[in-house]
Structure formats: C-alpha cells, structure tokens
Design goal:
- The chain is mostly beta strands.
- The chain has a domain of 70 residues.
- 0% of the residues lie in helices and 69% in strands.
- It is built from no helices and 8 strands.
- A 4-stranded antiparallel beta sheet has the order 2-1-5-6, with no helix packed on it. It has a 4-stranded antiparallel beta sheet with strand order 3-8-7-4, with no helix packed on it.
- The relative contact order is 0.30.
C-alpha cells in the first residue's frame, strides 16, 4: 500500500517500513506519531483521492532528531563594500512508517 502525506509544507511518498527525513516534529525518540494529512492512497484494489480519504491515517515511530546539512548563502551589493555570508542547519526528524490505516 502506498500513500502520499503532507508535513512541514512538503509531500512525501511512503509505504509501510519506509524511513523518511522530515522537518522537526514534536515528540520524543521512540514515540508514536500520526500523520492525518493524507493526499493519496493506492493499493491493488485501486486508488483513493480527496474526499474518499476521510479517516485514513499514517502511523510512524520517531527514530531520532538531528541537524541537517549546512546551507550557506551570500548577500552582496557591488560598489557598496557590502558582503554578508550566512548559514543555516535545519533540525530534522527521522521517522519510520509503521502502518497505513
């Protein structure tokens, strides 16, 4: 069974047993999490989209929370002696999908 979930402003294609890295989620390591924003679900019997997905949920288990890779950027204005370099590390959560209900 395949599902597309929405979390952190992004969409992820998942199935039972998958491990995905998403933006920071509240919860402790080893805790259970439920994704209720399911956009698509499909299996051998057919597919479901939109209003047919009422009551469909995806359950997962939080494996760990960590900092992602560093992303750097530069602001520069020519002829004004202005240059700023900045960086950011997004906090990520690794989730293992346990089942699609």
């Amino acid at each position: 069974m395949l599902a597309i979930i929405k979390t952190g402003g992004k969409q992820y294609k998942v199935k039972a047993g998958d491990k995905i890295k998403v933006e920071k989620l509240e919860g402790k390591e080893g805790g259970k999490i439920v994704f209720e924003d399911v956009l698509f679900m499909g299996d051998e019997k057919g597919i479901k989209i939109g209003a047919a997905l009422k009551g469909v949920k995806v359950e997962g288990r939080i494996i760990k929370t960590f900092s992602g890779e560093k992303v750097t950027g530069i602001k520069f204005k020519p002829k004004k002696r202005y240059k700023v370099k900045f960086g950011h590390r997004q906090i990520m959560t690794e989730v293992e999908i346990t089942k699609i209900i």
